[in-house]
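Work package 3, deliverable 3.1, input record:
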Amino acid sequence: MSAVRASIPTGEHTAVPHAQPRPTSRDVARAAGVSQATVSLVLRGKWHGRVAPGTAETVRAAARELGYRPNVAARDLRLGRRRTVLLVVPALTNEFFARVYTGAARAAAERDVGVVLYPSPEGLGPARDPFESARATLDGVIASSMAPHALAALHDGGLPLVMLDSSPEDTPAAATVNLDLADGMRQVAAHLLGLGHRHLAHLTAGVESWTFALRARALDATLASAPGVRLTRVPAAELSVTGGLRTAERLLGGEPRPTAVVCDDDLLAAGACKAARRLGLRVPEDVSVTGCDDLSLATAVEPELTTVRLPAEDFGAAGMRALLAVLDAHPADTRPLPVRLLPRASSGPAPRTGGTAAPGAAPRSGGAAGRS
Amino acid sequence: MSAVRASIPTGEHTAVPHAQPRPTSRDVARAAGVSQATVSLVLRGKWHGRVAPGTAETVRAAARELGYRPNVAARDLRLGRRRTVLLVVPALTNEFFARVYTGAARAAAERDVGVVLYPSPEGLGPARDPFESARATLDGVIASSMAPHALAALHDGGLPLVMLDSSPEDTPAAATVNLDLADGMRQVAAHLLGLGHRHLAHLTAGVESWTFALRARALDATLASAPGVRLTRVPAAELSVTGGLRTAERLLGGEPRPTAVVCDDDLLAAGACKAARRLGLRVPEDVSVTGCDDLSLATAVEPELTTVRLPAEDFGAAGMRALLAVLDAHPADTRPLPVRLLPRASSGPAPRTGGTAAPGAAPRSGGAAGRS
DNA sequence: TGCCGAAGGTTATACGTAAAACTGATGCCT
DNA sequence: AGGCATCAGTTTTACGTATAACCTTCGGCA
């Protein structure tokens, strides 16, 4: 029934033809019996002392009556602004990045800024260069987990750039906003050491990236101060449940077997749990597993995952605020966002009869992270 | 150092008036020694027979040299087109909708159309009107799972509207694009009946919505032709793992206990599996569980979920193509998209000694969902 | 009385682009 | 020789908005 107006049947292959002719500010002016300038003044709220209150109300009523909405293209053209930023994320289907987007979009909306989303350079096909086509319209870019060459392409555009979870040094970005994942790793390590684990495995993302390198360093540093603790580091075949499963299967099938597996991601942790079960190991009685992110997956699986909760929405919002600050030539707040370990069911005391028990040294005295 | 000079005024006038001095087509014209019109002609590719090849090449070189990118606002203003559509989804953090978006965005990109995402009426705060926050004038709207009042608000905008997964009749939409979930339900029912189940439970989304009503009807219809089959229908407390867990706990704790639980969503199915385990029931030996969507969650949990795979990306793409067809006054393809049951580990033969059937046989032989 | 300054508007203009309408200069046909 | 098509461009205009610059009335006041 909806009266969708037939488009102009010219042979022209218009991508998207005119829909209904929308009322312009001039139409509103005509209806209210004033000039177009007055309409603009009133509707932009800059009329105090320049337009009589009664006239202003008349204009507003006319606009409402006609269902007037300003033409954004015309406004942006006139103001020479774009009020739009690009957010580049590896994949929206990863819940973490969906949450980052949500937070960023909300923070942007507060400042009346739009967000264009690129769900990865590959996401829209390699033929379309998102940066090329989008650059013309953007004020700035927030990028997450970019490969160096893509990053360089972004910077070539001369657009203000904010990087998420990247090295503050090695980047051409105007600012970086990070999560305090080093501290997260410290919390995980303290948690597991406190539970008596002495042989940890670190199931890494298997991706070359600053964040993941940072976590590895933080874990190493924490364990360095705990004597007699062994660490096995293994890169996952793929950053997915399946990848975690495959790699953890090898890891937990070998000897000596670690009593706890620290994973860089909840997906990997879920995979590790599956691997343990397939090998006949119980979680957490035989092996503890920890994840990172606190995806909804973490509480969907059995047992529920001990994990590091990342404030994804806040992270996106902080990135957006940093970019807007940069655009306003203000200093951006680049303090790392705090993260928190959420102990749940997938981690527990180290088994008494560890398959790896270091001979000689009594595992008793070294209990560093002693809970009082 | 990137000299960042762009500025988005903070609501009041800021001293810094404009963004970076970006070259215009006039600058290109000056550099190439031609008029602005010629630049436009050449760069839009409409110069054949109107501009000499040598001149065209000169223009292109000048544009490249200056790093010229057309001003999208000006172009859109001139062409009176918007080349942007709004996609409304309940929540991006739901992987299904993230995939719908991805597919829609890809289909849009093929036609040089942009997508503005509106992650639920609640997503950006209730005060914000979707049209206002869409930082573009829109050509049309694709909406998914809308409450009737929100839907009416959308339609008031007078924009061409395509609905996803909605009744073709009761909607003001110009077109609807659906998944063939009735057939999906039929496949699930056939699968479970084939495995010998005679007491099914239907754990519904607990949301009033056309799709879910459709599934219930389809399940009823299929079971009607199977004599002696009992169906218990229970609405979930909430469309989430926790909701599924809570409701399934009551469902599986009662008597007589169903031997299979058909869930409207993978989240519910995951919750049902957790509930079964907490009650000491094995899946699928004691109770079979099926889901819907085939989220990545489905293969992350143990056992992996038998589920109905929905082609989410195709769905989004089909919605976008339907909208673009409507805008072109072409007929939209509104055939429902086929879905497919993926039998995995969470469903198996009905137990011999069902709580509802005659006792006698040993629950031994179960294990693999051995089906030829 | 004459002048000033507000109040309450209006007119005119610019933003960058696309494209319609126009202009010269050729070359070719009859 | 005259006319006309063709080529290779240029001038001009319009899109809808925001705002600077410009007009009228007034009332007040020295």
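Residues 24-26, 36-37, 39-41, 44, 46, 70-71, 73-79 of chain B lie near DNA strand C (CB under 10 Å from a C1').
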